[in-house]
Amino acid sequence: MYRGREGQWAFYLHRLSGLGILVFLMLHVANISSAMWGPEVSNALMKFYHQPVFQLGLLLLIAGVLYHGFNGLRIILMDFTSWGVRYQRQLWYGVWVLFVLFYLPFLVKIGGGILGGGHGD
Amino acid sequence: MAIKSKRYEEARLEASTNLELYWWVFMRISGVVLVFLLIGHMWMNAILTDLNSIDYDYVAKRLSQTTWKIYDLLILGLGLLHGANGLRYVLDDWIRNPSRRFWTKVVLYGLIAFLFVLGSLSLFNHDFGVN
Questions:
Q1: Is residue A17 part of a domain?
Q2: A34, B19, B66, B126: which is deepest, by most CB within 10 A?
Q3: For residue A120, what pLDDT is reported?
Q4: What is the ipTM of this complex?
Q5: What is the phi-psi region of residue A117: left when phi exceeds 0, alpha when psi lies from -120 to 50, beta otherwise?
Q6: What is the pLDDT of residues A59-73, one digit of tens each?
Q7: Is A43 an 8 Å CB contact of chain B?
Q8: B8-124, which class in CATH?
Q9: How far is CA B17 from the centre of its chain?
Q10: What residue ranges of chain A have pLDDT lower than 50?
Q11: Is residue A60 part of a domain?
């Protein structure tokens, strides 16, 4: 359909990020819900997830959410406007502009935390 | 079959059932809502808060406030439904064997339903003893 150019990448990344977000969401709900079993269980899990490797994972997750969200808006524009499909490639570059704008604060805050060694107890 | 069309008019023609068309519409509506809910959620808990300070007390306090109960329930419900339906598109594409596809769906939908119950219990059926 897109002859292997930007549109194809947009599609694969959308699918990959969607699957990744779903896996995270399921782990996240299980982790947060564990608070029902009291502070010991909950804090032990939290401490486990505060390790730097999971914070890197979180940076990847946030990237996935922002891409999936903004590319989703691009898909909606393609669906409901008369010009969206014609400009799908330009819209995809727009997705990346929004992505960088929104991702930078997270990258600085969480990335800085990892490098600053402020993780865990 | 999942709808592949890129325009609403085409999607309506292609939809094999009304249900498939409703899912197509649901993905777009829930998608827009989730973009705002999730950017807000991530901003509050990763930028305005130090991620590493999040512990039981923080969670118990948040899950005890009506605003966040509603906010989180919206993310939980819309997110899991949006994710489950997206997963259905992917499984229909990638798993060719009908019986394997069926059982994969049974297991994964079951897991998703379980997490919805678990999450909503923590939002509405548990007293964290925080005012």
A1: yes
A2: A34
A3: 47
A4: 0.90
A5: left
A6: 999 999 999 999 999
A7: yes
A8: mainly alpha
A9: 23
A10: 119-121
A11: yes
